[in-house]
Specification:
The chain is of the alpha+beta class and 141 residues long. The protein has 2 domains: 4-69, Arc Repressor Mutant, subunit A; 83-137, Dna Ligase, domain 1, CATH 3.30.1490. Helix content is 35%, strand content 15%. It contains 5 helices and 6 strands. The protein has a 3-stranded antiparallel sheet. The longest helix has 13 residues, at 50-62. The chain is flat and about 50 Å long.
Length: 141
């Protein structure tokens, strides 16, 4: 990861200990929830309010430093891998989330059957299934 202070400055954001800690936490644990990130940030810098973590995540995602994904039935998750329009594999059993590169070409990787006048710049695909660990640990019926 590029120096967090430099990233914040490049995107016109004030450099704060909280934002640096959030960037580092997300980089260290891709696909983590806000609550997971808050635990990691507290371990790194001490006391920080939950709201401060949520506010930092929101502005960092808005500025494109983080990506927020919202799988159905799951809290939002955050990752530092941005700009490449990759997709995700999610285990229905344990929730493990893994990046998967686009199947075809460059962003948006997929073509809608009808654009309805939109300029489409991103496609978000989530593949659902069962991860290898959960398949191995499945109890026979």
């Amino acid at each position: 990861m590029t120096n967090p202070s430099d990233l914040l400055r490049e995107h016109g954001l004030p450099v704060t200990a909280q934002r640096i800690a959030v960037l580092r936490a997300v980089s260290g644990r891709p696909h983590a929830t806000a609550d997971d990130i808050a635990v990691d940030v507290r371990d790194g810098i001490g006391a920080i309010s939950r709201q401060s973590v949520y506010d930092s995540l929101a502005i960092l995602a808005e500025k494109g430093l983080l990506r927020r994904i919202e799988p159905a039935g799951s809290p939002a998750r955050y990752e530092a891998r941005t700009g490449d329009n990759h997709h995700h594999l999610i285990c229905r059993t344990c929730g493990k989330t893994t990046d998967v590169d686009c199947a075809v070409g460059h962003a948006p990787c997929l073509n809608a059957s009808e654009s309805h006048g939109f300029l489409i710049d991103e496609a978000e695909v989530i593949f659902w299934g069962t991860c290898p660990d959960c398949l191995t640990n499945r109890k026979p019926r």
